[in-house]
Design goal:
Largest sheet: 4 strands, mixed
Oligomer: single chain
Radius of gyration: 15 Å
Number of strands: 9
Distance between the termini: 42 Å
Shape: globular
Strand content: 25-35%
Helix content: 10-25%
Strand order of the largest sheet: 6-3-8-7
Number of helices: 4
């Protein structure tokens, strides 16, 4: 099945399931759904950063400091976090990602809104990211990631939902 045909739960403002629809329709109509964001750190505490492929349905070719994606119909956040982390990193046998917080992301790009659960996981396995999902990747020290967040010559263009999740994570840890 294509990514656009994947069935997602549609949720209300309280994150209760109110229906189901294919991902393509969810995106086209801006329907509220669920997503997971997993911050993957290696044994040296560096953060996995990647650039999305140009064929992604939303935010193509932008950088992200999280692996993750949408929660499938009937799937729990925890199940989706582990599945997405293993798929995108190209590994199996990861420890269960640790949930950190949940927030409602309201898009300013016209792509809708989604309940977002943020996780963290330690990945000491060699990664082999999916070529369909990841155009470039590296584990970066947090200081390097922070430098790349800026608007200056070293700044990169980041996915807006991942950036919102990362800013909330930084505020939580401050």
């Amino acid at each position: 099945m294509s990514a656009a045909g994947e069935i997602l739960d549609i949720v209300d403002e309280n994150d209760r399931v109110v229906g189901r629809a294919p991902r393509g329709e969810v995106y086209a109509r801006g329907l509220r759904h669920r997503a997971v964001f997993v911050l993957a750190r290696d044994a040296e505490d560096r953060i996995f950063v990647h650039r999305r492929t140009p064929v992604k349905l939303i935010f193509p070719s932008l950088y992200d400091m999280f692996v993750g994606g949408v929660v499938g119909a009937g799937e729990s956040y925890d199940e989706a976090a582990l599945r997405e982390a293993e798929e995108e990193l190209g590994v199996s046998g990861l420890p269960r990602p640790v949930p950190l917080f949940t927030f409602l992301y309201e898009s300013t790009e016209g792509t809708g809104s989604w309940w977002s659960r943020v996780y963290e996981v330690r990945c000491t396995l060699p990664v082999r990211p999916q070529v369909e999902e990841v155009a470039w990747h590296a584990f970066l020290p947090e200081e390097e990631l922070e430098r790349r967040l800026g608007q200056g010559p070293d700044g990169w263009e980041w996915v807006p939902d991942g950036l919102a999740a990362y800013e909330r994570l930084r505020a939580l840890r401050a």
